[in-house]
Fold this protein.
Amino acid sequence: MPKVGMEPVRRRQIIAAARACIHRDGIGQASVHRIAREAGIAPALIQHYFDDKETLLLETFRAMYREFSADIGRRLALARSPQERLLALLEAQISASSLTPEAVSTWLAIYSTMRNFPLLGRIEQAFDRRFHSNLRHALRGMGLPAVEAHDIAEELSIFIDGLWQNVANPVTFTPNRARALLYRYLNLRLPGQNLAPPPDDSLRRANDDAGLSAEARQFLKDNLPVAPAHLSEANVVEMRQQVAQVYRAEARASVKAFGLGLAQMDLGGVPALRVAPRVAAGAPLRIFYLYGGGYVTGDPESDLPVAGALAQRMGVALAAPRYRLAPEHRHPAALEDALVAWKDFCARAGGPVFLVGESAGGGLALALAQAVRDAGLPMPAAMALLSPWVDLTPDQRLANDGHDPTLSRQNLRDYARLYAAPAADLSHPAISPLVGDLAGLPPMILTTGSRDILCEQVHALRAAVAAAGGSVEFHDWPGLWHVFEFYRALPEAAASLDRITAFLCRHDTTAPLTEKEPG
């Protein structure tokens, strides 16, 4: 389940406006009133988040350093060799997305005012040391002696700085020229390495984004870059409270928008939420829904934008068990709860049912289906998995880290660490069901987006299920992100939920059922 709150969104809006003003007007003219006008808010609101202009400028500059460092980290995580690590470090500095006119002018403004902000000077020095160290380490990995690696790393640092200074005059020096000069230098200085620019996916991403709705574009503008957040045993309770607070209003709005009736229920001793359209109070239980949240946060109410939409569209009742969360209850607690609840759910429904899950709930749904099949229990007629997290192992490419506005690689690592026991094998099929036996599963629909941080593993799941002889309907939505169906304001969310509903209805060949009384 995506985690996006209003306060970080507002802060990002103000910082983005400050950057735009610095680029357009210069740092001296970037007043609080101009920044407020750029952001479309009252100046007093800026003072609610930032004490004064100096604090705002400092936070703007720090945000740029964080964004820049995160981009380097994302590129390094995708590198699979010392040569790729070297190019990842350099491309982060001279790629077209880095050398934009706004970025160059804003960075130069930082340098011109650094004497007024001693903290920035320390951040810059630490950044330069890390950059030089990473370059040296990559060069050593390519087989260069220590002294030569040090010298070339120093030369590259100076070279990059000179390129940035020259790109400030785009009339005579363009980013393409800067890139060409850098690779000319690299191949003269490192003969035999045959270093070439890596494939650039910016055009593909631009094409994906071209068809996005205005609402989706605004969401990306408000929520990128992803705000850094680390989850640990120490702050998990606080994080859950923040998540619940953020989504409580959206849950209430979903109840009203979809005309839902909610009731608490019990499934084999596992508490659950029953969701059904109010106009069909006696609707049969037909959907077993597993919410997301990384196995650490979340609850059935928070997922009402998705769960409620499906119940309303299909005119049936849905049950969402409150499976136990980690780290208080680590694996296999969630799977155990889901299995117990499933048995009681099927006994009450008395006929074909559907299994739905999103994100971690999607991975849990797949693990549940495998366990149900192996135990010879009733199987769902069909499954719907929205951006399912089916591979918790840490060494994945995750090319959308930094592009997905809702989750990061670090988020996934934190969730996986808290969910599994410290010595657990994350490649165990019950934890990462992608590597389990996928034969004999019911027909399923998979949804993802080209920005989804889990896009690669959803594609891998599609291929693996098909290879095992399964039936899969697959939708990869251009430009969209992790569980985008959660956001009711997006036309794309409604369209995807319509497709999921149509798929499930095609696999419902029975007459309407009447829900059985428990016991």
Remarks:
- Strands lie at 260-267, 270-277, 285-290, 317-321, 354-358, 382-386, 444-449, 472-477.
- The chain has a mean pLDDT of 90.
- The radius of gyration is 26 Å.
